[in-house]
Amino acid sequence: DRSRGGSAMERLEQWLSRCSSRAALCFQTSPVKGRYAVAKKDLKQGELILEEEPFIAIPMDARKLFVCDVCLRYEEDRNVPMKHTCLGCESVATCSDQCYDKLNSTHAGLECQAFGRLRELLKDEKSSFVHDTASLHRLVVRLLLLKHKYQHGQYNWKDYTFDDLLTLCCTNVPTVSSRKKVIMDMTSQNIASGMNDLLPSTPEEIEAVVSREGANAYGLYYPSRGPSQHQSSEQRMFASGFYLLSSFFNHSCHPNVYKTLRDGTYLFNALHDIPAGTELCHSYIDLDKNTNQRRQELLANYGFVCSCKRCEGDELDDRYMEEYICPKHACGGLVVSHTSVEYDEPIRICHRCGFDVDMEEYT
Fold this sequence. Notes:
Elements: H1 6-19, E1 25-30, E2 34-39, E3 48-52, E4 56-59, E5 84-85, E6 93-94, H2 97-107, H3 110-122, H4 130-151, H5 162-165, H6 178-194, H7 203-216, E7 218-221, H8 233-236, E8 237-242, E9 250-251, E10 257-262, E11 265-270, E12 281-282, H9 291-302, H10 314-324, E13 335-338, E14 347-350, E15 355-356, E16 361-362
Parallel strand pairs: 9-12
Antiparallel strand pairs: 1-2, 3-11, 4-8, 5-6, 7-8, 10-11, 13-14, 15-16
């Protein structure tokens, strides 16, 4: 994160106290990194650092009828539709009567009309990334409509506000891929010109949200359990959302933190023992790639060239691959040590696919 200023740091500490009294991190700031997360105490391998629910999240367009719009749950058979689908916009679905009632309190009315309008705006779009474009449209529209409702006393933010979101850093547009630029531009233009009668937002507000999404939003991914489910991150992504505190974890290709997903909540744990005061980093990308591939992906999607110690040294790159990267092809997960009552030595299991590295089998 590149936001700066004393008031911003004070606000960040307030977020932390509201979000989780168990959080094991605090924040520092520097002219180069801006605000970033550090260990508040000595952390043991596997220790929970932060647990955070999304500030706002929405299923990806291609999965919108197969993932609950409220709780983000899905069926074991991922291609089984949800119990309820909105008949007005045909763009949201819920898994239960309870989630359906909860969704109606925010979706009925303007959001339903807006999502229906989006379907019309994009129905003739032929690009290969139309689903990504539609997903970003829906996330931005939902956020701006909730902001409008909040201003009129019709909605209460839980932990953060729209203004808190705007303190996050923006996408470094000149460095991202042409594909991402097209998606960002199309989203801003379509919402500003095609929905101005429904969305009480200025073009500047729309662009501000689009820019924050590109630099800070988290993807939510299906687990890849077993060899038959190894897919790319893009194929496994079923939702996207903002996790404001989690946005202050910087990236490293040599991370000391790994994250797991539980019903829409992200949990961040220590990959190994971490001394107090150490910067906490996780990886924004799959790590089973060489340095050039990782740097190209980070530049195209996040707008920076990684200079972590793994990217700066080939020998360390090889050692890290051997010690921490899941050996199964196309997984990209991190190998985590776990204690077990059944064995004298810790067992090493991929946090993503469940492969037991020592036993060479899936758990």
